[in-house]
Structure formats: C-alpha cells, structure tokens
Amino acid sequence: MKRRQRRIKTKLAVIGAGLSGFSAAIFALKRGIKTTLLGHTGALAYTTGYLDLLGARRGRLLDDPWAGLAALREDEPEHPLARLGNDEIKDAFACFTAALRDMGIGYSMPGALNRMVLLPAGIRKPTLCVPDTMLAGMEAADRRAKTLILDFAGLAGFSAAEFKANFLTTWPAITVQKIQFPGMEHGQVFPEVMARALEVPSLYAELARRISPRLDGARYVGLPAILGMHAPDEVHAAMERLLGLPVFEIPTIPPAVPGIRLRELFERALPETGLELEPQLKVQRADLRPDGITLYLHGPMEDLEVESEAVILASGRFLSGGLKAGHETLSEPLLGLPLYQPGARKDWYRREYLDRRGHRINRAGVKTDTDLRPLGGDGAPVNTRLFAAGSLLAHQDWVRQRCGTGLAIATALRAVKSAQAILS
Amino acid sequence: MSAKSSAKSRLYETEVLIIGGGVTGAGVMRDLALRGIHCLLIDRCDLNAGASGGNHGLLHSGGRYASSDTRTAAECRHESELIKKLAPECVDDCGGMFVAVEGDDPDFAARFPGFCQAAGIICEALSPQEARAREPALSEKIIAAYAIPDAAIDPFRLVSQNVEHARRLTGSVFLPHMELEAFQIADGRISSALCRDRRSGAAVRIRARQIVNAAGAWAMNIARLARCEDVNLLYSKGTLIVSNTRLGRGVINRLRPPGDGDILVPGGTVSLLGTSSVTVEDPDRIRPGVDEVDRILAEGAAMLPGLEDARFIRAFCGVRPLIRASGAATDGRKAGRGFSLFDHEDQGLENFATIAGGKLTTFRAMAEKTGDLVARRLGNTSMCKTATTPLPSGDAVRMTEPGRAARDWYRRAEPDDLILCECEMVPQSAVDEIVGHAPGAEDHMSLQAIALRSRIGKGACQGAFCAHRVTSYLYDCGIYDSDNGMRLMRDFVAERYRGVRPVLWGRQLPQMELAEIMHCAMAGLDIAPDEAEQ
Amino acid sequence: MMEIAPERAEPVDFLTTARDLLPEGASYEACIACGLCASGCPASGLYGMDPRRFIRMAMLGLNEELAGTPWVWTCTQCKRCAYICPMGIDVSVLVGIARGGWPRDKKPKGIMRSCEAQMRDDSTSAMGLRSADFIEIIAETVDEIREGDKRFKNLTAPIDKAGAEFVVNQNSREPAVEPEELGPLWKIFDYVGVSWSYTSKGWAAENFCMFTGDETSWKEMVKTRVEAINALGAKTWINTECGHSFYTMWKGIERFGLEADFEAGNLISFYAKWIREGRLPVNSDWNRDNLKFTVQDPCQLVRKSIGDPVADDLRFVARKLVGEGNFVDMQPCRSANYCCGGGGGFLQAGMNEQRRAYGKRKFDQIIATKAQYVLTPCHNCHSQMSDIGGYYGGKYHVVHFWTLICLSLGILGPNERKYLGPELACL
Lengths: 424, 534, 427
Prior knowledge:
The complex is a heterotrimer. By secondary structure, chain A is α/β, with parallel strands linked by helices. Chain A has helices at 19-30, 65-75, 86-103, 135-143, 160-166, 191-197, 201-211, 232-243, 257-272, 345-348, 398-401, 404-422, and strands spanning 4-15, 35-39, 56-57, 60-61, 115-118, 124-127, 147-152, 174-179, 220-224, 247-250, 276-279, 283-289, 292-298, 302-313, 324-325, 330-331, 339-340, 365-366, 386-388. The two termini of chain A are 38 Å apart. Chain C is globular. The model of chain C is unreliable at 1-9 (pLDDT under 50). Classes of the chains: A alpha/beta, B alpha+beta, C mainly alpha.
C-alpha cells in the first residue's frame, strides 16, 4: 500500500505550535491571510499563564517595562524587543489579549506598569497581563488581606504552608487548609484532571461546599490553578458566586493547567476562525526557493506537502526542538540556519547556576534583519520568504529577563507584517 | 561512658571523637563500637561529602593495581571478598572485565594474567566474541579481554550502615555540619575539640579521650590544627560522568596502564564513566570540568562506541588523598594507593591519630589498624570484629540503592504514598523514613540531607521537579516553617547544577532548559528577596 | 488452524526491545520527566501506574515489574501521551511489548478468546462467525430489506465481486448479533450508487490479536484480508464504522511489509465526499427539537491514523446531519481527544471497575457538552460510552452515523432504530 500523499497550498505557513506560532496565526488571520500552522507544542505547556513583557534587566526587577525597553535599546540594541517600537509591542499585547478574550479566556489589558503577581512557592514577580482568574491574588497580597490558601491532598508540588511561610513577613494574614478534591480522595491528583472535572457544574458546587466551612473570616480564597480548562472564567465566576468572595488561582509547577489551557484554546478556537492546523506534526524538511517554500511532514499514515508563499519559523529553543546542541556547537536542525554561537561548550553556561548575568547559551539563536528574516553566513537574508519569531531568536534571555510572551508575540507580529508585505 | 549534651553549653563527651564522615571515619566508628567503645563522629558537611561520595563505587578485585602495586592489589582482593560476604546489600556483584582495543599495547595485555596471578586474583581469558556476548556494548575492535571479580558498591549505603550499626552497638552519635576549629592541647594530650555548628553558628566543645583524624583530603589540615607536621598529602582530583541508563552489565576496565576514561562501573540503574586524574592544590572548591568530561568520553568511546550518543546527566569529582612520601612523584596516577596510620607520638601527642590515604575497597582494613591503636591506648583489649561480623542493613539506610525506592513502592502499591521524585520514584514514605531514622536524623533534616540519603535529585531531572515537590512536602510536614526551605532549595539546585554543567549537550540540555524555567521563571529562585539584595 | 507463536521465555529488556520499534530519531532517553503524559492520561492512577512511571521504570530497568503490571491492559494504546509529549515519546510501544510477553493463560480471557476465534478459520471473525454463516446472514438480511422497503427492491450486498470499486470489511457485531444494523450502510451505498463488495475470506474487520500483543497473529489476520482484497482488484478498501480495524490494517501492512494493491479509505471521509458532491443529500430538518449532538473522535482513526483531516470530515458530516447550531464539541477533541476507555481491548478485558474509572473522564466531557446524543464511527467507543452513560447515570444516547444519515434521508427502517432515543425512534 502506498503511503498517502497530501498537498496543501497556503499563503503563510507557521512552523511551531507555541506562543509565537499561535500568535503569528492570530495576527495573520486577522489580516485575512490564509494561514497554516504546523509543528509541535513544546514549552508552551510549561507556562504560568502570565504574559510578561519585560520583568527584569541585569537581575533587577522592573516596575516599568517601557522604561526597561528604553534602557534595553541602549545597552542591548540587538535584543529582538529592542528592535521593535513601543507602539508595535503594545499593539501586539492588545491584539493578543483581545483575541484570548474572544476565544474564551479573559486577561487584563496591557498597562503602563508591571503588576506583581504570585508564584507557586510564595514569591511575587512582575508581569504585564494577568488572567482574570489570577487577578484577585495581587489585590489580596497588596492589601495584606486575610486570605485562605488551599491545597489538595494528593497534589504533589504545591503546598499552601510553603506559600504562607514565604509570605510570613509581608503578608501574615494567610491561613491554610488542605482539602480533598471531590471524587479524587485517594492517590495522586493532577491539576489538569481537577480542572477538567470542574467543568461539570455539580462538581464545582461540591468543591465550594467543601471550602465554605473553612473560610473562617477570610476575605479572599486562593487555590492552585485548577478552575476549569476550557471555560475557566465561567468556573471562576461560579466559585466566587458560591463562596461569596473573590477567588484567585496560583500557578503550579508542570504539568500545570495554564499552559494546557492556552494550547487547547488555540487548538480549539483558531481552526474556527480559518486556521488550517496540522497539530503536533513536525516539519521534517523544507525546500526554499525564490518563488515559494515547500515544507514536508510525515503523519502517521501520510506524507504531507505544504506549498506556501511565506514561512514563519517559530520552532522554539532546545526544549521544543527548534535548536539542537551538539558536543561543540549549537544548530538549527530544520534549515541549518547559522546561529549566534555563545563560544565553545565550556562558555555556554556560567560557573554558578543563578549568576545574575544569565547563561550565555540563552543568548544563542537565529540572527535576523529588522524584518525578522534569518540571515545566512554572508549576512544577507537566507530567503526573502522566510521569517523567524519567538524564543529561537538570538540575543535575548527570556527566562531571566521575564520577557517570554513579549518576545513571542511582538516578534510574531513583526514577522507577520513583514510576510504580508511580500505576499501576492 | 555516654555522650552528654546540654542545649546551653553544647558540650559533648565521648570516648573517641572521629573527624570525617566518610567511609574511613564511619568504618573506624563501627570498628570501635564493636569493641564496646562509644564514639562521636563529626563532619563539617555530611556523610560521604568528600571522596567517599565522589568515586565510582568500584569494589576493586585488585586487577587495576595488579601491574603496578602487587601489595595493594592483593589487599583489594582480600578486602573485596570480605565485603561481598559481610555487606552483601551494599554490593552489586556484577563481575568485571579488562579489555584492550586496537592501538593498546598487546604486550601489556598478554602480561596481565601474570600480574593477576601474583596478587592472587582470578583472571579468565575471554575471546572477543565471548566478551561481547557478556557486554554487548563493547567495541568490535577488542584485541584482548579478561574476566575478573570486580564488583560495584554503594558507598552511601556502606557509610550509612556503618554509622547506623555503631549507633545500635554503643549509642555512638553522628553530628553533621560540625566544623572543627581548634584543639585545646595540654600536657601532650588534646583535651577538647572546639567546633562550630555550621547551621546554627553555635560553638560546640567536644571532650574525648582519643581523637581520630579520618578527614580524607582534609586530614593534613586537621593534623596541622593539632600541630602535627608529619601528614603530607597529595591531592588528586578524579572526575566521573553518570549516564541516564545503565550501559553495561558489569565493570568494564581498559586493559592498559591507568589513564583517563578507563573504566565504566554500573551504579545500579546508571553507569559511571571515569576517571580522570588531575593533581590539585586545594581539595576545596573542586569541580568537574568540560575538558575533563570530553577527554573521559572520548577515551571511553574507544571501548564502548555507544557512549558517543548516550545521555549523561551529571559529572562529579572527588579528591583522592594520596600519601606523599618524602621526595615522591607529584603525579597522582603514579603515587601509591596504600594507606598510613600516624600515631603522632613523635609529634608529642598521645591521644591523636590520623588515618590517611587508602581506598574505598580497603576501608575496613584501615579501620582495623586504627581501631587496634585506639583500643590499645584506651586499654580496651577487645579484638577487631569487622572481619567476621556481618554489617546489618535497615530501612532508613537502604534508600540510596538505585531502583530500590521504585521497587518497594511498586510492591506496596499504596496509592496515597505520593511519589515526590518521579525520575527515581522516591515516595513520601521514603522521605518520612529518612527524616525519622536515618543517621544524622537526630538533627534537623533538609532537602540536601534527604537527597544524600536517597536517590532524590539523582535522576534525569537533577532536581528540576523533585526539589519543588520535596520542599513542598517538608513545608507540609512542618520541617520547614519560614523562607529557609526556599533558600535550601536554591542551594540544592545550585549544587546540582555544578555537576550538570559539564554534560550539557544533546538530550540533557533541554532538561536543563526546563529546569531553568522551573527554578527561575516559576519559583523565582533568582529573584527571591535575599537573592535580590546580594 | 494457524500456528500461534510461542511466548517469550524470559522477561524482555524493554528499552532494548523498544529501540527497534521506535521511529528513527525517537528515544526514551529524551524523556524529561515532566509528566504531561501522566497528567493527560485517563489510565493514570489505575494499578498505581501512569505513562511517566512506565517510562521511568523502563529507564530504571524494572523489567520484571513492567512485564507483570496489569496496567498494560488498561492502557488502550491510544497514543495521547505521544501526542502531547514535547519529545514525542510513545509509551504505547512499551505497552505493546509488555502485552506480548504475558503468559497466554494470564492474558485477559475476553481478548484472548476473541483472538483465538479469529485464528480459527479464514473468516477472521472475532465472534466466531464462519464465512458460510456470514454469507447466509447477508443473503437473508438483503431479502428482508428488499421486501420491507420497495425503494430498495434492487439492493445488493455483493460478495467476492471482482472489479468492485470498494471492498468492505464488516465488523462481526452486526452479522453476528444485530443483522438489522447491516441495513443502513447498504442503503447508503445503494443510495449513492457505489460499486462495492464484501470478501468471503477475511471479511471481518476487527483484530483482537493486535490487542493481545501477539504480532504473529496480528500479521496473519491482516495478511488473510489483504490477499482477499488483492484478489478482487478493488481500488479502495474501507471498513464499517469501526476505529481499530482501520488502524490495524494500514499499520499491519506497513509494519509487516505486506503487498497491498489498494488504498486504505475510511467511511467517514466518503460520507463527507458524497455529501459535498450532492450524492448524499442529508439535511437536519428532522431535528425539529434542536437536539444537541456531540461527536467522539475514535483515537484509532483520528490521532493514530489520519489526524485532523478526518476529524474535520467527522464534524462536517455531523453538522450537516444535526444542524450547525446543534453540534457541540467535547473538549478537548480531534487529535487531542481522550480515549473513551473502550479501545485496546479494554472493553473485552473483563476489568470493568478500572474501565469505568478510566471512562469517567469521557463521561464528564460528554456531560459538560449537555448533548443528548453522542455520534461515533467506532464500535468500541459506542459500547463504552453507552456503558459509562448507564453506569454514571448519563441521559445521553450513542448512535452510529449511518443511523442518522438514513434517518435524515428518510430511509431508516423501523427495525434500524434501536440506538435512537424515543423522540427520534418515532420519527
């Protein structure tokens, strides 16, 4: 039996199903560009759900990300975000959060300042946009309000006692309770499973019944991020209604709900707005020509060819397979793009893990021109139809700089605009 | 006599103070306890913090030294046979092999059986086909192979069991994090050891009738605190790398004079490839380096080509304290592997002894010789019993065995016993057991201490996940109650990183990327309040 | 009688064995222990196991434990773990190895009996329906339809018709247990005017030998069918609305390197094609009460085989049938869909308690849609969702596509309505 062959013709092909790939699809569809998204989800599943623009620079936390960007343009002019204007970045955040809201997950709009949000172990960090389900946590912390923090028997890696202990001096009015999740009283429980179960109304009603007698005068209730997977805002609103109090979610360590929520939101909603999605298939090979780009993929039982006028490469870093590390050098495995190399292997990582300068390897990546076209060894664009976006770009350190989302979506917007200019 | 301590004065009294929680110190502790003597064992860090935790866990048949040092080789053979018999739980009697590949000296290979015979080591010639049938990972370019009775040993378990047995015998005590700062010396005797508890900062005085310096690479420094100038050590750093899975059935040695990358030793569920030898000036602040790792790997791949593509999860190193005879060579590889007992009587002290040099395999013999001296000085006439008394095991001291926690957990099938370390499948109950009963548990337990006494943090993720989960659990148990737990987690992952750093390429690098996301982006360890103040 | 391969004598080393079965470049060594697989697997927690633990235990060399855990019969090999794993690690390969290593007399009897029945003669029927009986039942049922509905007085269900465009494999359930359910599909073929045929040898579609982990028998099963189809010279092979029989065939042909002179087609995509071409003019006028419908994507057909294109076709057909506004998706769905717990032989394994625990997630998904009906083109999905609906007190019905297509076209016979609720059965 011959393997099935399938051919797709599209205007724009996006490689990579992470934050930058999906946001590129959102921006492109909004511009009426026929878009196909291919590739695998990598690090997206590990996000907290917060949308950072720029939260830290040189190991210092930033209140004002826009002032941070101005400084970044001075001393890191090659940083992908430093090459974009504030308006374009603001536009990317506004458009992206609006799209998320349209698709079903509410987020706060980008503001003038960062907001200090809660991390699982009881630390705060700056971010730009916050899921509606997590907003009340900041308010409770700012007000040092009497707050009940819940954790669940069987949920490893999230401890209300730990959260409380780390806020001991700045937010002493925390009480903690460990409760059993309805129907999951024994064994290990996963946030993902709890979140899905909470989409059934009888279940969140039962959960609220278990929480109510433990409130003891609390003004807020915080719990790990489990309030629904596909309709978190509805589940969140229902819990607030049933408890009569503001309720907030706290992100948890992977495997956690916020990342899965985003991935499934995109996979569900974007095809409805016209995205052609070939989920979780890796592009094996690409043929770059002056008049178009062909991508080759292998499904379980068919070979797929995607004929496109432009391609945005948003395949992520090492975790997502967008970059590979050999014994001596780093490479971009799909197209063999030359990378900014951070020296020999002994230079990739600093001597100390938490060195505030960050590791040099995190600065490695694809070099581009201002239109985000990857540059070849000769310093000229590899192909006029090829663009790159997101964390595989060189000269940034998204983890330490707390700029992952900003990097992903603002470069995706620039890449889409650049691609649009060359589409027929 | 038993140890007394009061919270106010922090004074301990004992018959024998032993300095150094490595295999030598632990061995001496048990040796003396078997003679009915009470001991206090201290370490500035914790058990196995030096070379005892930084070696490849090889129970030498003696084959490695057969060509260069017949006496050491014979001693290894004798001691390894005893340990296999008396402490079987600590030993993986997996057998071993010496192989030469194309390019190695065929002459040396041909003389190997003769060397072995001289030391009484059983050595069986294998054809290349037979060798590859036993070890399918071996290169096709083998020119000679011999089977020898090498084995693997778990040094963590060995030390824990020695300490635990001493506790049971005479109520002897181990105190971790106890740094020796000075000796009070009067009339040719050390009257007190002045120490500091490195965690609380409290000053601690220890009074003992006899003091044994078993501080390994730090033995020379300790001796000098007692104004003894007769201990002269050479520090030889050895680096090893740990694979993600077990790559060989038994021990595989390169059949040639010792060099880098010449041995692959099974560590239960993983394999350890080593060992380099670099002479260093200072036993503190040693780290495995990228260059060493590459050298080890390149050499190892000549025997085992699959190593090139294998995933390595960690590198680590230890310092071999070698006795420097006057005017001896400064090359650690060539220095002898024998041990020396210094009675320091010619230095004017009558209750101080230093046991230095030697090997993991010969620790019992070292302890015996030391025990004989100390017992005689105390007027104790008991004979050494370690050559005949089996080393008892126990629940709290067996958690370092690779795969053990997973097997136990699977067998018990208790769904509420949550797994905290998924890589090595270490459940809550194992942590409870360690916190309650492991040597050193008399004091406060931390993530670090639990990890040392189990497989936590030793699997593929190297602390990315388990650091969070164990920390959360310790908060839930009330063992942590302030931001101390966060600081300890930060120190733990920073320590793990030092070992991971030299093997960051290929498949371990995405794991590191995820770890950094979890430690920095999610836990904010790089922005935790006191971190930001630095 | 065909020869059944002897079982392996000693426990296998899972990692070594799996190495030869994984696609190039894939490796369990890449596992980063993140647990997305376990978090997203409905079998997690059963017998204390989950996909991550299975991999970790393989890495730790706990071969004996893996060889013995009954969890391998609760993992439906649905490959959702591989789908969501950033490294693409496929636990189902290890599970297949473990299943194959179980002693024959210890394997779940229900699956084994079905496989043994399939090996008994060249019908390949898991329900032990011999070819002669099959042919007789077909003939009788054709006669009944011809008599019962004048519009189908020339309806045929050909057997061994050389040169037919389609060769159809038939799930044994209909001819063996509910022959009246054969009718709707034949009527659809007749309505569209398709040239099709059954084969007399290897006519059955199901393959329980694959579920037992017995590769030799799996291969035999597929080989018998492939030879029968090749003999007729058909362009396309399809099967009835059944998930695993699609996967077992194309995967078996690929895995065992069999010569097949035909393409693997699937019925749903042909329904969609015929609707688009106007040959199957279905509409939703019958759904006057705006009953809500959801659809279950069979793992074997969608995630494990064709992927989202067939999920698109499923939804296209469903929306045409029930009306745009009356279709509600389960979440997650399509390639990310959860296995219902009926697949992989779980339904036949006799592990009801575990199977229902597994199915609870599917039940919650269905309830969250508030749909009164679940459509699915898979027999195992169908049975499992009916069972968990009854067990957990769901009020929904589970129906085949063919039933609704015929209902919509006004050609559904009165005896072909057993799966419809009363409000539709009376239409």
